Amino acid sequence: MLSYDSRNWVKALAFHKSDTFRKLLPLLLLVGLYSAGIAFIELQYFKVGADSPISNITVMHSLLGFAISMLLVFRTNTAYDRWWEGRKLWGSLVNVSRNFASRMAAFLRPDAEEERTYLASLIPLFARELNKHLNKAWTQVELDEEPHPEIPELDRAKHAPAQVVSLMHQRVMRLHRDGVLSSEQLIILNTDITAFLDICGACERIKNTPIPYSYTTFLKKFIVIYVVTLPMGFASDLGYLAVPVVMFIFYVLASLELIAEEIEDPFGNDRNDLPLERLCTTIERSVKEILD
Asked: 42 phi and psi, to 5 degrees?
């Protein structure tokens, strides 16, 4: 995720790698050439003036402009809701990890160093594996520089976060059988452990359920048809000034669609995605502080 100062106007106006202008530049040039061609034909060959019937097409653009603006507002709001829900879920994961670690730190004996070391590695492992799971990065990566032999190698061909939760359940049940944890404590801890997979399932729902295909394709077609017909009406009124005007309108409309496409899937490595790696580091640091 790109960190920035929202109050710095000068830096906000600069073009950066994720700016939509860079992505749309080839299409903007194409729209500019098309608009210039339409303006040239209307002004030089057909001698279209401001009183020509073809100039009345701007009335249609005025009516359709309101409709397309409402569609784009709905599109961007829906995409941002998905982004913000993902952020709330990972905020909940930070809290659940801290709560589980603090309860285990209170329930375990002060001299249970082995159990504390195991949990200090296992709890952050869920966040790491969930991050890879959502990014589909199926790679064999060690948690620390020194491997932990008490944590078996995960089979990442299967559901890795569920395997980590299974290890949590196994360790808690073993402590209960050994008499370290009471039945009441076991119930409290099971609630925390269940919350891990609940968060995972909610993140998978966002990841695997994109905006309906028909809606996105209709909106893209609507934008293209709207922009393609703009020079036909604007050239008679604005002349060649219609070229930059049409290019700017296309830039605004297409940029909103591109932004919505990027933020509707917040679990990635784009500059506008959630800072999952930073959140994983926060969980790891907090859990180790609590259990130490």
From this structure: -70, -40
235, amino acid identity: A
Token readout for 178 is: 């050994």
Which residues are CB-neighbours of 271 under 8 A, at least 6 positions away?
1, 2, 16, 17, 18
Convert the pLDDT of each residue in 217-271 to its tens digit: 999 999 999 999 888 878 877 888 889 999 999 999 999 999 998 899 898 887 8
Alpha carbon distance 254, 224 (integer Å): 9
Q: Which of 242, 240, 247, 245 is nearest to 44 (CA)?
A: 240
**Alpha-carbon gap, residue 146 to 164, rounded angstroms:** 19
Q: Measuring CA to CA, how many Å separate 26 from each of 29, 33, 120, 138, 210?
A: 5, 11, 50, 34, 27
| Residue 219 or residue 18, greater confidence | 219
- Contacts (Cβ under 8 Å, ≥6 apart) of 17: 271
Q: What is the mean pLDDT of the chain?
A: 84
Q: At what angle do helices 20-40 and 242-263 cross, to 10 degrees?
A: 150
What gap in Å lies between CA 40 and CA 56, rounded to an integer? Answer: 19
∠ CA 134-136-138, nearest 5°, is 125
Neighbours of 36 (CB within 10 A): 17
Hey, what amino acid is at 255?
A: S
pTM above the 0.85 mark? no
- What's the token pair of residue 174? 């073993």
DSSP string of 39-63, one letter each residue: HHIIIIIS---TTSGGGGHHHHHHH
Cα 261 from Cα 97, distance rounded (Å): 31
